[in-house]
């Protein structure tokens, strides 16, 4: 549907920190269905198609457990190509006794779980955009119960073979310390649009009229601190821009707002007002 391709701006890759690399690799391969693209003693790049890494994991030196009530990762979200893929992974989870949460968001059908370190994961499929309900620039989303009976009965059973090749990083949802400056940073700086407000504690932003490429919430508490660098959680995520000119405009806007931007290995790197690290790529 083009929401995760240029000219839209979208999340391309997420890197998280874990306490035990071997334990996490076992989980992400056997439970979630990733393949290892490349690895070192402390890091691994994971792939669904055997070519492109959409998730990487790292075991930092002197790593400490995930810190409660801090900013950072709420969940990253893997978008599957088809509804049959979602039904397939539900059966896989049931067969292996994996505990999951679920929700029907109107725009999507979603499963929720956490890795062994408490990093949040969403696995979902989108409903056709023609049935999304837009009103005055905002899309209707809710947290209704997922109809597992309909999902499993309407999709033919197949043997589970891991994540399908067309899986992409659908969105990322972050804990932030406040919403006013954060909204300004992501909209006026990074170029996103607010497409849904969930009370006064969360907002959802996107480009190209997607239901959201990024979620932002203060559910960890207004004023929540940034976690220590060596704690489990988010290392960074990447945003993919259309071209060099588009990225240059974003860097200029961020500089004009007083946001720090540095250059690192061909990428520009910035921090949102809550300390979440973002790589700006093309």
TrEMBL record:
- Keywords per UniProt: Metal-binding
Keyword Metal-binding on entry: yes
Any Pfam family from its record, for instance, is: Glyoxalase
Q: What molecular functions are annotated in GO for this chain?
A: lactoylglutathione lyase activity; metal ion binding
Carries keyword Metal-binding? yes
Q: What is this protein's name?
A: VOC family protein
Domain VOC intervals? 10-126, 168-282
What are the TM regions of this chain, as residue ranges?
Answer: none
| InterPro entries given in the database record | Glyas_Bleomycin-R_OHBP_Dase, Glyas_Fos-R_dOase_dom, Glyoxalase_1_CS, VOC_core
